[in-house]
Fold:
Amino acid sequence: MMRGTGLVNRLAMLIVAVGAAMVPFASLHAEDGYDLWLRQAPLSAAEAQAARPYLGRGVQVLAAMSPTVQLAVDELGQAGAGMTGLEPSTHPALVLARADRLESGGYPKDPRLAGAPPGSYSIRAVHSGRILITANDDLGLLYGAFALVRHVGATGTVADAEAFSAPAMPLRMLNHWDNPDGHVERGYAGRSIFDWWHLPEKLDPRMIDYARANASVGINAVVVNNVNARAFMLESRYIAKLKRLADAWRPYGIRVFLSARFSAPKDIGGLATADPIDAAVAAWWRAKADEIYAAIPDFGGFLVKANSEGQPGPQDYGRTHAEGANMLAAALGDRGTVVWRAFVYRAEDDTDRTMQAYAEFQPLDGQFASNVILQVKNGPLDFQPREPFHPLFGALPRTKVMLEAQITREYLGQATGIVYLAPLWKEVLEADTGRGGTVAQIVSPVGMTGVANIGADRNWTGTHFDQANWYAFGRLAWDPTLTSEQIAREWTALTFTRAPGPRDGIVRMMLTSRETLVKYTGPLGLAHLMATGHHYGPGPWVCDLERADWNPCYYHRADRRGIGFDRTATGSDALAQYAPSIAARWSDPATTDPRHLLWFHHLPWDHRMASGRTLWEELVNAYGWGVLEAQARQQGWTSLTPHIDPERHAAVAADLAIQLTEARWWRDASLSFWQSLHGLPLPVGAAPIPERLEAYKARTFPEAPGQ
Ligand code: GCW
Structure:
């Protein structure tokens, strides 16, 4: 394959294609990213005049003034000041109306709101040029206000703002893996934003900005602490701290949840056991729940990681996950929910790790209390750049199941470069389980959670483009039918520029970015090839860790003859956990989705691919394209220089340079290792590998963040 600069140039044009004639939209000033997608860039003079009657604090309100309605009014006021820069209109034309008060203002009902789920809203243009935001509840008015501001921000006009929108999923949640000491597990955006030490006396104003950002994309639940939980966060002093956050976030419609350590009755309760069928244990949890609800009447509930990776759980006492979850569910009663994680695998079990969660939980279907939700990661392994969907989706018809996604990029390059995750989540949401619907259809009655990528960095997420992942997560949990492109376009217009050329160039850079990362880290269904502990960089040679299934060699199974994990009937038969229609299709390499080929099949290096290349040639080709695309993206970003404010442009340019270095490193180290196994030469035209394998193996990064 050709590797000239000409090719990279053409690729850059394809990815970005800004168009030479485009001129910057408005004067650009340095921005640091703190304002996220809510930065409310100024409209043009004509746009501002036209939008003025609809933005501003002076809207007509047909609702009892509550803190939430006040926020909706403030949001419109802030947008008016920021986007129009004009004095508010003396004849405001925007009406915020609770559905039950519409008629008092002489406005027609909106039948679409009848029976709509909480938070739904409608935006309608009515007589005399007015725009009406209507909802059944106050939160719907706030969401409607955010939606109108978003529309104006993304398009420059209130025209076509009409919409009816209802959240597809009731629970739209973030999981913070934040520890009380401020360290964030798998966090790449600095320390935790939660200042537990100074709470409850001191509330960091950032807590309000955080809640506002979440509410602006419909997120309505936050688990504030790591699933690897410290029991002391259930102590009274922490309940007081949590109450302060809950009170601050309530107007934004955000309910707080706590990760609960299952052994808490022993750790902090003075009991001799945490056995879920022990009456004293149940009573302890009940009293704890009562104490929390006395302080926080709308407390969401507990998230529990049990009997996984060293965490305590009901199996320590010979009880099932259902017995453990149900005991906690009884303590909460109808006040809240137990979210129980299905990310469970055992040290003493040597069956294919990707099969263990299904084996554990599928037989428990129907045994969980009605206020228990099972939280299932998107794939059966662990947030890899690409996995097939988790076989538990569709296999638990009598259990409430929620999707867990990872917004923080633990295995996807951490906070470097650009990796837009909406395409990854869409891939799983749209996967047909073969058992009564797509993953989106199965989880929609319950919800979706995302492991947050938020930290105390000034721009919240480490890189500017990681803000898009927070944004996209919220938008998809609200409406999983939105396309990755729609979300990217909206976010780009709000965050960087709405000039169509540069905007669409950025969107194209985003849309292909996850695939680029897959190509240079692990193409064709390879997974779990990263270095140990911090998971930063390649480590396909690692094979000496105490647990077999912590080793990359366990997953790629490469040797002199071939590569890949046989999960068909001749291997682990993980395929048997899928619906028969899917298992049948994926059991033959010829009909397996090529993106999952080596996930399900062990194939010889000279296996002939559909392209006519051998498997080895195909791998080399894919890694090579990953590098080329990273290079093209970097070049494309350079061509956007006139359109982006200098501070953020420079930061992203630096991120992309790091990503290109990492892409080359992944490609070179991986190919060099595969070559050490089979001794095959690189195909003609492939870029040479600059260093010897030993040099790649020798690189260590004990200080890499997030561990
Ligand atoms: O992805 C893995 C991470 C752990 C994490 C675990 C989990 C919170 O490497 O850091 O622990 O998954 O999801 O529980």
